[in-house]
Amino acid sequence: MESDARCYLSVQELSAQLRTGKLSSVEVTRCILDRIKQINPRLHAYLTVLDESALRRAAQADEEIRAGKWRGPLHGVPIAVKDLCQTKGVLTTCASHVLRDWRPDTNATVVERLELAGAVLLGKLNLTEFAVAWYHPENPTPLNPWDPSLWPGASSSGSGVATSAGLCFASIGTDTGGSIRFPSAACGIVGLKPTWGRVSRYGVFPLGESLDHIGPMTRTVADAAIVLSIIAGRDPLDDTSLSAAVDDYAVALTGGAKGIRIGVDEKYIGQAAPEVAAAVVEAMRAVERLGARISKVVLPDVEAGIAAWTTLCTADAAAAHEATYPAKASEYGPGFRSFLEVGTAVRGQDYAKAQMVRERFANRFQDVFEQVDVVACPSMSFASLPATGMPADAHALTGSNALLRFTAPFNLSRNPTLSQPCGESKAGPPPSLQLVGRRLGEATLLQVGAAYELATEWHKQRPAMTNMFE
Fold first, then answer.
1. Which residues are known to be catalytic?
2. In this structure, what CATH number is given to the domain that contains residue 411?
3. pTM for the full predicted model
4. What is the CA radius of gyration of the chain?
């Protein structure tokens, strides 16, 4: 279908035009809201749309910018957040009937920081119930804009769909085992999972607190850097947030790839579908031509870690839902209810064993960064999956789930990752490259990702969305 070109501007491009007055936040916000009204009834990316408040904030942004009170590159830019981020006075349902009427009294820190930066909050984005793999059966399921028969990417699916389909300029996702990377790959966009603790988790309903990461989902690497620069940093409301200074990500974008050491484990990459593995290898050739140094590495085995992830995540989820499960078990959908059933059955000694598996893998993985600055691999095993490809419930999950092979290990290790398109879209979204950095190494990931993006055209591919609205 045809789209207004303004809806697909990058945050960088839009910000420049808002600051110079070439565009106004009100006209761009109206443009996006009109597009949401047209497309969202089919795609179901949004659970809540904040038309009136978005336009008020846009008008305020225009007044401030005209008065010379520019707050930064998100000022006046329409964005959206996943519906497990608390928003003061606004429904925050986590896509579950358990919280169907919850209107928090406070904002999540990530929402607060976006609003202080002058961003225009368009609404709350759809997700799997409480951010695992299954949608509540009475809630609408987001559709992949590339092809409605394809998987939209699990938990942060609304964020992936909205960003890909031009229904916001940037979004916030969360990632406990792949839920920034899966929808970014499935919807052909950029996703950044920061180091655990780099972005405050205060006010974001947890799935697995020891595994949860919060980060930006955008259409360009530069836009991910802009959003991260605003949401990153120590938060006194979250004692797990990190105190380390936030790097200048805008400067990192201009550094190029020359001299960056990138590690490739050919056996690990080869566990992906052939077309995905080939796209990642070709991406490394392109980065090598830009001056990066590619070398072979051997990553620690991930299989035991994936099994440990399941034990840790289900038990962490059971702890997060202690107040409502099993007391309100009937209000959960069957998929997530089964996840909690598994979690409540985890024995203390099994949790302890899984934790030590995690620590051993994480420590061994950090050793890799004595040799290289970045590790390259796929974001997920396949370029796309059928929308019906998820197991029926948590009891059907296995500890060696191929889907988690390229994602869960880096939640266990707490390292940052950057996902971006790295090949041609054929029958669906393009394959996705994942760059993994040392802890607090987001600047290096952005440096390499931006250099690769500048040298290629893959990120400019858009879903045609033909035959979806007839």
1. 82, 155, 179
2. 3.90.1300.10
3. 0.97
4. 21
